[in-house]
């Protein structure tokens, strides 16, 4: 049996909803939203009713600050509601933590837990604004909009492919056909990228499998992410004043660091703060190396009463 519970912060503690409201009003520019409530929904399978009740005030909620429902409150006339869940295969830390806590609490097998975040928006919100808000709040890379129907089971069955599809005729495709291929399969690669792959497989004298194209596309998208950081920004038109003010401060720091003649790019924006802190003598514990894909600091750690250098 699948048990469902809804948990919402009491009004005095609804900090997240207030932050989302400010974000929608300021960053997104949707002034019609007058209120945001956030309700956390949990579905649990693999425990008894007694253990589910035991977990309500200990795992799923904090009685002093949370309200608990077993049915989602009906939306009012001026409210819009939608729910968001992680895509299948994406790690859901909240659901995993809840499952582990229930296992420790009940001293039994780990149950299945699914989590969804429900947004309840108040205000005279148009259909266009509602679609804009959902697009803004749902990160399509890792999450999707989900329904409100009751679940009969949380078990997920997958069809195991008996064979991998070979993309017959791939190396013979014209440029126009390759462009259609990019659209059909939703690839991160562009037409020229796929043409490069086609030339490789021509050299191999064979057509690729769909798995090979998907794997190449996955690594290609990560490569594009890195090159994006180095793309030169010629100009920036920033509407929200508080972001524009921050960007202007960034420009002043570039002058202070003698970088005003260097190209502006996302990597420069991301790393300038550390350069500024270092110049001002505030980063004595910074670990500098040729590796630019991570940030680390050197610290002294007390290990059994003795200070040791840790990275």
Structural class comes to alpha+beta
C-alpha-based Rg, rounded? 26 Å
Question: Ranges with pLDDT <50 over ≥5 residues?
Answer: none
**Number of helices, counting only DSSP H or I runs of 4 residues or more:** 9
Number of domains as seen in the coordinates = 3
Helices and strands, in order, run as EHEHEEHEHEHHHHHEE
Shape: globular
Report on this model:
The chain is α+β, with helices and mostly antiparallel strands. The chain folds into three domains: 2-146, no CATH class; 170-230; 241-310, no CATH class. Helices cover 40% and strands 19% of the residues. It is built from nine helices and eight strands. It has helices spanning 15-26, 49-60, 93-106, 127-137, 175-185, 191-204, 210-230, 241-256, 266-279, and strands at 2-9, 33-45, 66-69, 79-86, 112-123, 143-146, 299-303, 306-310. A hairpin with a 2-residue loop joins strand 7 and strand 8 (306-310). Helix 2 packs across helix 3 (93-106) and helix 8 (241-256) packs across helix 9 (266-279). It is globular and about 60 Å long. The model has no long low-confidence stretch (mean pLDDT 92).
Which characteristics define this entry?
311 residues, alpha+beta, 3 domains, six-stranded antiparallel sheet, two-stranded antiparallel sheet, 9 helices, globular
Q: How would you summarize the topology of this molecule?
A:
Blueprint: E1 2-9, H1 15-26, E2 33-45, H2 49-60, E3 66-69, E4 79-86, H3 93-106, E5 112-123, H4 127-137, E6 143-146, H5 175-185, H6 191-204, H7 210-230, H8 241-256, H9 266-279, E7 299-303, E8 306-310
Antiparallel strand pairs: 1-2, 1-3, 2-5, 4-5, 4-6, 7-8
Helix pairs in contact: 2-3, 8-9
């Amino acid at each position: 049996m699948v048990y469902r519970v809804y948990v919402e912060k009491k009004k005095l503690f609804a900090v997240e909803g207030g932050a989302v409201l400010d974000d929608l009003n300021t960053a997104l520019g949707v002034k019609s939203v007058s209120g945001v409530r956030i309700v956390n929904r949990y579905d649990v399978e693999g425990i008894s009713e007694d253990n589910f009740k035991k977990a309500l005030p200990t795992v799923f909620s904090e009685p002093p600050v949370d309200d608990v429902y077993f049915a989602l409150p009906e939306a009012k006339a001026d409210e819009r509601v939608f729910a968001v869940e992680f895509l299948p295969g994406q790690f859901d830390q909240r659901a995993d933590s809840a499952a582990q806590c229930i296992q420790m609490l009940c001293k039994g097998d780990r149950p299945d837990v699914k989590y969804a975040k429900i947004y309840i928006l108040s205000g005279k919100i148009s259909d266009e604004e509602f679609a804009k808000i959902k697009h803004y709040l749902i990160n399509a890379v890792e999450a999707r909009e989900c329904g409100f129907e009751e679940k009969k089971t949380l078990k997920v069955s997958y069809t195991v492919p008996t064979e991998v599809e070979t993309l017959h005729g791939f190396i013979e495709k014209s440029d126009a056909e390759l462009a259609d291929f990019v659209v059909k399969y939703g690839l991160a690669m562009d037409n020229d990228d796929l043409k490069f792959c086609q030339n490789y497989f021509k050299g191999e004298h064979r057509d690729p499998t769909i798995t090979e194209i998907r794997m190449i596309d996955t690594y290609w998208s990560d490569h594009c992410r890195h090159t994006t950081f180095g793309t030169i920004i010629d100009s920036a038109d920033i509407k929200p004043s508080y972001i524009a003010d921050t960007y202007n401060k960034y420009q002043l720091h570039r002058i202070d660091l003698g970088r005003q003649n260097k190209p502006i790019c996302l990597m420069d924006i991301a790393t300038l703060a550390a350069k500024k802190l270092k110049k001002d003598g505030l980063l004595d514990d910074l670990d500098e190396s040729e590796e630019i894909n991570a940030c680390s600091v050197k610290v002294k750690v007390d290990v059994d009463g003795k200070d040791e250098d840790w990275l």
